[in-house]
Amino acid sequence: MTPVTERIRQSLVHLHMARALETLDQTLGRLERGDISAIEAIDELLAEELSLREGRRIGVALRTARLMPIKTLESFDFSFQPSLERNRIMAIAQLEFIGRAEVVHFLGPPGTGKSHLATAIGVAAVKAGRSVYRCTLAELIEALARAEREGRLAEKIRFYARAALLIVDEIGYLPITSGGANLFFQLVNARYEKGSMILTSNRGFAEWGDVFGDPVVATALLDRLLHHAIVVQIEGASYRLRQHADLVPEHTRAHANLTPPPLPKRRGRPPRRETDDQGPG
Ligand code: ADP
Ligand code: MG
User: Fold this and answer.
1) Would you call 23 exposed, middle or buried from its count of C-beta atoms within 10 A (0-12, 13-18, 19+)?
2) Which one, of 107, 256, 214, lies nearest residue 171 by Cα?
3) Buried-exposed string 38-72: b where 16+ CB fall within 10 A, e elsewhere
4) Is the pTM of this model over 0.90?
5) What is the pLDDT of residues 111-165, one digit of tens each?
6) What pLDDT is recorded for position 155?
7) Which pLDDT band holds residue 8 (cuts at 50, 70, 90)?
8) What CA–CA distance (Å, rounded) separates 205 from 98?
9) Which of 234, 239, 240 best tests ligand 1's pocket when mutated (most atoms within 8 Å of CB)?
10) Chain-centre distance of CA 193, in angstroms?
11) Where is this region: Disordered (predicted)?
């Protein structure tokens, strides 16, 4: 080992460039054999280190954002939900709504992929370097209520207002007390026109009065949440039940197909087949 390579090694140790240190011998070997030029060797070491760090950053960010287990748009079978326009979802996944502090609503019956899509867009946002946080409405309200009891509500609202994208999943499954609705309203107000959100719900907006146990707060919530909004209505069958449709009671199946109003635009058109068109584009 020459004094120069020893010095490089020491420098990499001090710079905490573990991956570059690990690949140093291999890269130098390729350089000595003439497989790569000196400039390519530098590039290779830096690229190795960077990709390790980027992978680590994404892993940490996905966990802190609570986006595990991760979902992706590539693994979403659009042919199973013909009411859903793939291009529209892919446009949302370009993430411009985050910069515009808009609210994306995914509405539809259980199992139609609302959480999957919300998580997949969250994962794309993390990869793009945006800060993301995901929770259910019940978790969010519980955390705010606890913070209020402990006299640190303002701090908690600042926490939930901080992420560039806040995903609030499962609106409508559990009834919310009017105190809870009030706390959620304070958070929505704090984020209004400042930070983007993705909301998922199995209930139409007309039912939010029931969901939040208070028609006045529900109206005020919707006023803000629909001002700069993208509404994606998913119709159709549950992906969870796709192999067991024959075992599900008739009234459950009927309900699953009944909840969202039909999209007038698509009526009469045959479902599109997109089986050989899975990648992002
Ligand atoms: P929802 O939130 O609407 O109740 P989920 O997004 O949780 O439904 O979907 C239920 C399960 O089915 C998840 O594991 C999800 O990944 C999967 N899933 C739903 N729709 C699709 C789809 N079109 N393609 C692939 N997986 C899907
Ligand atoms: Mg869900």
Assistant:
1) buried
2) 107
3) eeebeebbeebbeebeeeeeeeebbeebbbeebbe
4) no
5) 999 999 999 999 999 999 999 999 999 999 999 999 999 999 999 999 999 999 9
6) 97
7) very high
8) 22
9) 239
10) 19
11) 251-281
**H or E segment and range at residue 233:** strand 229-233
What are the residue boundaries of the structural domains of the chain, listed by start?
Answer: 3-64, 78-253
pLDDT in tens, 99-115: 999 999 999 999 999 99
pLDDT reading at 252 higher than 80: no
Amino acid identity at 274 = E
Mutate to test the pocket of ligand 1, among 104, 199, 240 (most ligand atoms within 8 A of CB): 240
Task: Kindly report the number of other CB atoms within 10 A of residue 35's CB atom.
Answer: 11
State if residue 238 touches ligand 1 by the CB under 6 angstroms criterion.
Answer: no
pLDDT band at residue 253, thresholds of 50, 70 and 90? low
CA distance linking residue 232 with residue 106, whole number of Å: 5
Tally of CB atoms within 10 A around 149: 9
For domain 78-253, give the fold. Answer: Rossmann fold (3.40.50)
The phi, psi pair for 120, rounded to 5°, reads -60, -40
